[in-house]
Sequence to fold (367 residues):
Amino acid sequence: MDFILNGVDKKARAGTLKLAHGKVATPIFMPVGTQASVKSLDAIDLQAHLSTPIILGNTYHLYLRPGASLIQKLGGLHGFSKFQGNFLTDSGGFQAFSLKHNTKAHADGIVFKSHIDGSLHLFTPQKVLDIQYALNSDICMVLDDLVGLPAPFNRLKLAVEKTTEWAKASLKHHKIHAGATNYIFAIVQGGIDVDLRRQSALELSALDFDGYAIGGLAVGESAKEMQETIAHTTEFLPQNKPRYLMGVGTPQDILNAIELGVDMFDCVMPTRNARNGTLFTSLGKLSIKAQAQKTSDAPLDPACTCYTCKHYSKAYLHHLFKAKELLYFRLASLHNLHFYLELVRGAREAILRGEYADYKTCMLACY
Fold:
């Protein structure tokens, strides 16, 4: 996989990923499409209205329903969903954590009980990659051992050891079985322990992965602890490979992480908050539920150029939300994702100008 650094501003980086389904300019935010669908949006929305070059799908969920073999038969994720940009697929390690009452450790991986029908399944490092090859993922994530925080040192140490062991098995399998356009990222673990993070980052950096993710954050630690861990971890990751912070987060989290050298992000926050009535604007958060929006003919954000702001008023969106009309979900999600994508696009432009610190300060003033 080609990754070119187009510019740096202190630790902040602007780069370009070259993938089979188009170039990805970084920093980038990836909308979450767990079920091969970004909630309430279709491929046309993603491509024509948001111009997003990459979205995230989930191996665990797509394996259970509708099944990797069916998706493969119907043209992989791109043919199945009709989204012609790139797909990154998570391996299922997060689901093992979030659905832990349905999972248990196994010598070869993770055994889990389906949340759909209760059937038992074993995920191994090799199996999750085979599923992702069937999905024809552009970027495949390795299986990792994710631990919630706070956690005992010995459990975090075990997670680092298992994650490295599984990463080695994954890379060996990948070199034999991957398609020419299936790339692979490792995942650094270690909680907020600086020594374990360094150990994990160094062990994985010694292996020839296409990129590196920072996992195991936003799972119970404070914002300060998260930032300190990111700062420490990026020091030990290769300069010439993309860096992906998994499952994070708020606009503040993203801006801070970009400053520390992170290139890629995903989070359900923009779409989940949209559905719940919270919208991100250049003036700060806006609640569409508030009575003040009921009679306003202004757009959500006068500075926004998204499809929603160009065509609809706060009053209309307030009405849709109160009436529980499904159209609200689409229009609100388009707006929030546009905000996040413009946030990282603006960050990239600022990095290339050597003005990232000023850009971050300006954007954080409202958040």
